[in-house]
Amino acid sequence: xxxxxxxxxxxxxxxxxxxxxxxxxxxxxxxxxxxxxxxxxxxxxxxxxxxxxxxxxxxxxxxxxxxxxxxxxxxxxxxxxxxxxxxxxxxxxxxxxxxxxxxxxxxxxxxxxxxxxxxxxxxxxxxxxxxxxxxxxxxxxxxxxxxxxxxxxxxxxxxxxxxxxxxxxxxxxxxxxxxxxxxxxxxxxxxxxxxxxxxxxxxxxxxxxxxxxxxxxxxxxxxxxxxxxxxxxxxxxxxxxxxxxxxxxxxxxxxxxxxxxxxxxxxxxxxxxxxxxxxxxxxxxxxxxxxxxxxxxxxxxxxxxxxxxxxxxxxxxxxxxxxxxxxxxxxxxxxxxxxxxxxxxxxxxxxxxxxxxxxxxxxxxxxxxxxxxxxxxxxxxxxxxxxxxxxxxxxxxxxxxxxxxxxxxxxxxxxx
Length: 416
Hints:
The protein is of the alpha+beta class. The protein is built from eleven helices and 21 strands.
């Protein structure tokens, strides 16, 4: 008796998933709870386990979009292969039934040898070559196992051309010279993943449905860099993590959001929702696209607790192990394009939030300081915000406060 494996319910707002990869293949023996496939929603990637031991029979294909509850595969009765032998499958006799004699390739019948289902069948690579040559597989004798046509057979096959019985025609006038383009001009197409489609849809929605503006400022990073250089070894020995820039930015943002709560608010229908806590979303570039895991109640965390949370969430993101709960919510987002060399950008708001802070590359530049031109490590910072809820005064004042806290990090500890 076979058991149907269906797409499980993975979240209230998720109605369909994409079968991104089969871990086990059709006909494989699987153990109970063994991962057989990976499913990808618009928010995360999930593993699909086998619900019983037996022989896997795949129903869906990689890349298929499946609704919740759709059948992905079935598991039939069967036992594990002994000593690396073939899997014992109760339905093996049915699957191995030979095709009728009329369906056997003519080349194999004429040869008088034993004919199997593979006789005269071209491998995928061989079939492609034969199509390009315009040859019928039945005209080629296969030298592979059970008479299968191999790639080498297809390459050696020659096209037989009959002499065309047509009158000679006057040569046409020479055509205009065609410009030859040098270099490869290959193209390839890939189906958009559910995650990428959702990202695209949300970004367009934000651009179209919010009054988004961006304000800029610059930060002298020397005080923080000096502080890190002085205490980084002691900090790592005591807490087991490095002292990075993200913890300073997160603490500065949390302090500034308390003073300018509209930047931490959101619009729901005809109401403005103000949060007295700060759940900071950290933008992380994952293999399948941008994700924004959330650091909960960041305002109550110390520098080393923030650093540990950032490392944990970023690692999960790159390994596609983030849960929906870890990516749900968030009241404010920080994104760091500087790690990729970005000098300046206008980040897009992470809806339904109302603002996002963009960090950028640190470059030494000449600046005026106390009437003197000095070289300082400077960073541009950008705040994109929804003007429907945040006024210019609030956005600019918020960014100035963040700048003030970063250029004098002692204020973060003293809360002044």
